Amino acid sequence: HLAPSTPMMSSALASIKAPAAALRAPAAVSRARGRVAVAPIRAVSTAAEGSALREIVAEISGAADPAERVKKLIAMSASLPALPDADRSIANRVMGCTAEAWVDVSLDADGRVAIRGASDAKITAGFAGLIARGLSGLEPGDVLTISDDVVADLGIGPSALPRSRANGFRNMLETVKKQCRLLLADGGVTAPPFPSLVVTADGVEAKGSFARAQAEYLEPAADAVDALVAELEAKKIGIVAHFYMDPQVQGVLMAAAKRYEHVFISDSLVMADAAVKMVREGGCESVCVLGVDFMSENVRAILDDAGLESAKVYRMAAEDIGCSLAEAAQDKKYYDYLAEADGVENAVHVIYINTALDTKANANAVVPTITCTSSNVVQTVLTAAAQVPGVNVFYGPDTYMGGNLAELFTMMSTWSDEDVAAVHPAHTQATIKDLLPRLRYFQDGTCMVHHMFGGDVCDAVRKYYGDAYQTAHFEVPGEMFKLAMEAKRERDMGVVGSTKNILDYVCEKIDDAVARNLSAGERLSFVLGTETGMVTSIVRAARAKLVAAKAAGIAGIEAEIVFPVSADAVAPVAESESVALGGVAIVPGPAGGEGCSAEGGCASCPYMKMNSLDALMSVCAKIGTDAGEALLTPFEPRKYEAAADGPSVAALGCVPILHMRDFQRDGAFSDAFVEDITTRGRAK
Fold it and tell me: Rounded to whole angstroms, how far apart are CA atoms 396 and 34?
C-alpha cells in the first residue's frame, strides 16, 4: 500500500504543490518560535590542584616510547591498596570494563578520599593504582573536577592501549566520581534513589513501589491471556500497539502474541503497515489500535487507501487520546514556521514520524518534505546537506530533537574529519560547520513525557548513576541528550536514538557480558531515558538472553533497568510529620514511587495509559454485534474526508513517508525528491 508504483500514489506524487483538501485547520495560539543558539562546550581541568595525578601522568608520558609507558603504568599497580574479596561487590564493580575490576572510595579521618581497588588484568590494575595514588588525599569535590583526558595524556596510543581498554579506564574514573558524589550527597545518602528492576536468569527484583508495579505484570495471569486470545480468534480481531503501553496490557499482549499471530507491538512507524497485512493477508475484520489518536487515524487512512475500507478500526477510549507533540504540528504557529520556508531556495522540511497524515500532506504542499524517525534523523539531515549544496533544513515539530541535532552538529564541528566521516562518509568538519547556520528547528513542540528529563533529573542521574549505561530517546531535553552523548563518545557506554535503538543496545550489551563470562559475574545498569512503557519489552528480551546464557553454563550476569524520577515528584516531609514504622522514619522519595502517576514524575504518558487491558477487553466484547458496535461509534478514529477529485489525504500524507522509504532503501534521496528541493523554491 506504500509502493510508489500504485496509481493513487503516483497521482499524489504529482500533486504535491496543492494543499490537500479537507485537512484540519491549525489552531490559533501565540507562542515563540525560532532557532536557539547552542551553548559552547566547556573544558574541564585534567588534574585538580594539589593532586599528585599531574606529576604521575607526566612521569609516565615522559617515557621514550609507548611500550615503556605501558610498563610504567603496569608498575603503578604496586601503589594500589588491596581490596579484600568481601568488598569486590557489584556496587564496586567497574561497568563497561573488559577486565574484572573493582574500586572502593571511602573517607579518612580528615574527610579526604581513600581509594582501594583490584583487577585481574595487569594494565587495568596499573590504572587503578594510578588513580589511587593520584587522587587519594583529595577532597571528594576535587575528584569531580578531574577530566578523563588523563587517559589520552598518558601518551600510550591506540596501538598499545586499544579503544576498549581506554574506555574501561574512563569508566573506572567515572566509578570513582560516582562514589565521591554519593559521599557528598545531602542527608548521608548511600544508595542510588531511583526505582529500578534487576533482571537475572532466575527472575526480576523490583526496587521501589513504582518498579514493583511495572514488574507485577511481566508474567500475566493465564486466564487474562486466555480470555483475550479467545475473543481475538472468534471475532477475527487484529491488534497493533505501541511500545509505550501500560505494563499490564503489554504483558498480556506479549503472551497472547505467542498464540495468536495478529498481535503486533512496535513503534509508530510500522503500525499501519502491520494493520494492512493483518486485514489483507490474515483475514482480520477489525483492528484495535493501542496508541494515541494520530496512530489510529493513520491506520484508518492507510487501510482506506489500500482499498480495505470494510475493516473496522477502534481506539480504546471514547475520549480524545491526545499527543502533545502531534498537536503542536497542528498549531497555527507551525504553519507560520513552514511559511518561512515557502520560497526559500533549496529548502527541505524534515518532519518527525509522530505526526498525523494530514500534517504531513499540508507540510509537503508548502515545502518539499521528508519524514524521519529518531533513529534516522541525523542521517536524513546529513544526506540532505550532502546531496543538495546549500540546502536549508527546516526540522519539526519536536523542539528537543531539533535542539539535540544542533548540539550534535556543534560537537561534530570540533571533531576530526575521521570521526565526522564515521557518522556520515560524505562529511568533514568543514561541511558540518557550513551546515549549522542553515539548520532551523521549530521552537514550540515537545513530548510531555520526554520533557521530564530536564536538568534536575540529569543532575541526579549524573550523581548516582554516572558510571551506568546511559540511554536517551532523541526527543529528550538537551541535558539528558548530552549526558548520553558524553557516555557514548567518552566511555562507549551510551546510546541516543529510537525506542528500538534503545532495546537493541541493551540486548547488545548483555550479549557482550555473556561473551566476557567474568568469573565473579557482573551487573549492567541502564538508565532508561524514555517512556517507562519500554520496560516490558526490555525486561523480556533481557531475561530471555540471561536464561539462555545460564542454560549454556554462564551465570551471575544481572541487568538493572533504572527509571529516572523528577525531583518535583519527591514530597518533602518534616520530621514531626513523618510516619514511624518500628521507630524508623519513613520519608517519601522516588524509590517509593511518589509522582509516578498520570500527573507525571516518572516518564509515563497518561494518554498512552488510557489503552488499558480493561478498555481492550471492553472493546473486544462489543465487536461482532450490531448493538455493541453502535456503542463503539465514539471509539472509531476520525476519518480524513476525501477530496472531490485527485489523491486522498492518506495518499498525500504518505508522500513524505515514501521519500523516507526510498532513503532507507537506497541510502540516498531519490532524484525526483532532490529535483523538487532544488527547483520548487527557485520557481517561486
Answer: 11
* DSSP secondary structure letter of residue 291: S
Q: Give the residue among 468, 600, 604 at the shortest CA–CA distance from 94.
A: 468
| CA-based nearest residue to 76, from 89, 94, 63 | 63
Residues 238, 284: contact at Cβ < 8 Å?
yes
- Distances from the Cα of 146 to the Cαs of 50, 79, 601, in angstroms? 12, 20, 32
Planar angle of CA 575, 578, 581, nearest 5 degrees:
125
In three-state form (DSSP H/G/I as H, E/B as E, the rest C), the secondary structure along 387-419 is: HCCCCEEEEECCHHHHHHHHHHHHHHCCCCHHH
Round to whole Å and give the CA distance between 133 and 518.
Answer: 27
Buried b / exposed e along 629-644 (16+ C-beta atoms within 10 A): beebeebebbebebbe
> Helix 293-305 to helix 271-280 angle, to the nearest 10 degrees?
40
Q: How far is residue 102's CA from residue 80's CA, in Å, rounded to a whole number?
A: 11
For residue 311, what are the β-bridge partners? none
Given a cut of 50, is residue 28 above it in pLDDT?
no
Of 205, 198, 213, the closest CA to residue 604 belongs to 213
More confident residue, 24 or 427: 427
392-396/369-372 β-pairing: unpaired
| CA–CA gap between residue 511 and residue 549 (Å, rounded) | 9
Q: What is the number of alpha carbons within 13 Å of residue 343 lying toward its C-beta? A: 4
Query: Number of H helices and number of E strands within the chain?
Result: 27, 20
- C-alpha–C-alpha distance, residues 539 and 542, integer Å: 5
Contact 93, 70 (CB under 8 A): no
Reading phi first (left if > 0) and then psi (alpha if -120 to 50, else beta), residue 517 is in left
Instruction: State pLDDT tens for residues 577-622.
Output: 333 333 333 333 333 333 343 333 444 567 777 889 999 999 999 9
Question: What is the DSSP-derived secondary structure letter of residue 40?
Answer: P
CA atoms within 13 A on the CB side of 667: 3
Contacts of 671 (CB under 8 A, 6+ apart): none
Query: What's the pLDDT tens digit per position in 78-135?
Result: 989 999 988 988 878 898 887 889 999 999 999 999 999 999 889 899 999 999 999 9
Provide the annotated active-site residues.
97
Cell numbers representing residue 382 in the block? 546529513
d(CA 289, CA 287): 6
* Nearest-angstrom CA–CA distance, 591 and 174: 23
User: Residue 442 and residue 21: Cα distance in Å, rounded?
Assistant: 25
Q: Which residues of 77-96 are buried (b: 16+ CB within 10 A; e: fewer)?
A: bebbeebeeebbebebbbbb
* CA 463/CA 466 separation, integer angstroms: 6
Here the cell at position 373 is: 524517525
CB 166 within 8 A of CB 151: yes
Q: What is the pLDDT of residues 45-79, one digit of tens each?
A: 444 444 688 888 888 888 888 889 989 999 999 98
| Calpha distance 102→45 (Å, rounded) | 25
Measured CA to CA, the distance from residue 570 to residue 459 in angstroms comes to 15
Residue with cell 509516578: 596
End-to-end CA distance of the chain: 33
The torsion angle over the Cα atoms of residues 248, 250, 253 and 254, rounded to 10 degrees, is -120
